[in-house]
Amino acid sequence: MPNTLPIVSHLCNPTLHTSIKGDQGLRESVFQRKKHNNVVDANIESLSSAIFHLLSQTGVFDVRMGLNNGQIETSTIFDPFNKEIHLASNLLKPAYLENNFTRTTPSQKIAFINSVCDEVCKQPSFADVAIGTRDSILKRNGAHFTSTDRATQLEQVKFITESIPLLRDIENYHLRTISINVFNSVVSMTFNCDGTQIMNFSKFKSFMVQYIMPDTPVQNSKPSRALKSGLKNTR
């Protein structure tokens, strides 16, 4: 039996870009389901900035933003096995951000992640991990996350979060949820047609240029035919 890996696994794949087909009923009814603006839409730019703040200046390493219901899920390096749930409206309040998220510099976050990864590999039960997986994790951890990597990643995350308003404004195919993880550099997006796009941060800008804004200004962009076809016919 061939060894099939998950779409996103212990291997950090810089060329990752795949799509998943959603519910057929949602794909076929995409033009009948209009977007109703909510607190997220009314504050989309401020919320996008808040998401970037969490990922770049606090201990948060994973964020999932529900744009339809205003539910924001976060995981932090200080409590990595837990997932906190927040209301989007609360992330608009500076006091809420200050009281619920620990400020962390990029270098502190790098050092913390590297130390946790090293400690996990020292545990006796780590010897029970499948050999191939174990070797891959050790190789990944041995490379360690550098300051240069972090600087490049921050630029990518900034571009991703700044693109959220545009993705939300796609006619009929608006963004429904977006997940951003700075540990594995993966962004996952689900659209109104229920199609999902999953890619490495390094692939996001080319995705935007090719499908979202190939010949149009950033403002008020409409989806290209290629995007419509791609979202409707994902595997």
Q: By helix and strand content, what is the structural category?
A: alpha+beta
Kindly state the percentage of residues in helix: 40-55%
How far apart the termini lie comes to 22 Å
Strand content: 15-25%
Cα-atom radius of gyration: 19 Å
What ranges have pLDDT less than 50 throughout 5 or more consecutive residues?
A: 216-226
- Mean of all residue-level pLDDT scores: 85
Number of strands: 7
What does the overall shape look like? globular
Number of discrete helical segments: 9
Number of domains: 1
Structure commentary:
- The protein has 235 residues and is of the alpha+beta class.
- The protein has one domain.
- It has nine helices and seven strands.
- It has helices at residues 24-28, 39-42, 44-57, 94-100, 106-122, 131-143, 147-168, 201-212, 225-232, and strands spanning 17-20, 60-66, 71-76, 84-87, 175-181, 186-191, 196-200.
- It has a seven-stranded antiparallel sheet with strand order 1-7-6-5-2-3-4.
- A hairpin with a 4-residue loop joins strand 2 (60-66) and strand 3.
- The longest helix has 22 residues, at 147-168.
- The radius of gyration is 19 Å and the shape is globular.
- The two termini are 22 Å apart.
